[in-house]
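Entry type: protein chain
Record version: 2
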Amino acid sequence: MKKFSLVDLIIVGGVIIALLVGIYTAKHFRQTADKQIEATSSITFQVFLRGVTVTGEEFPVKKDAKTFITIRNVPYTELTVLDVTSQPRKTLSPAGKYTLVNDPSQPAIFDAVVTISDTAKITKDGAVVGGNKIKMGLPVTLEGETYKFNGTISDVRVSSDTDIKDSGENINIG
């Protein structure tokens, strides 16, 4: 019988460790990624677009239109826009009382909020879309036929189809 070298011992040790991890996973001592998903639900999230330059007649992102979304510079999919709110950049006017007025020095600069819906996997850490946790502050890119805007997620809401009974009345949340 020949002697075992150091490389042989390392290989045998690696195989033993792999077998132990497999046994612990099969016996449910170790939780895998697919076991962490608690539910699948629809979510609605808002993307805030700050300082978008638009010199055309109207804002290019439209309600009920499709927009391609990129999350953290990774292309995801095309989603439907539920709502768009855009306003010209504002400034304070000292005439009489201080009021907000459109900034005359930046007539083509807009701030916008785009609301989008998608189906997400719900984990204990939050909603996961396209392998990314969807949380406020996450950088995203919206892209259509005539635009490509960078923004950040400013709100995330998980829809719930649970009926709650309160004093005899059914209240549908979601």
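Comment: The CA atoms of residues 93 and 99 lie 5 Å apart.
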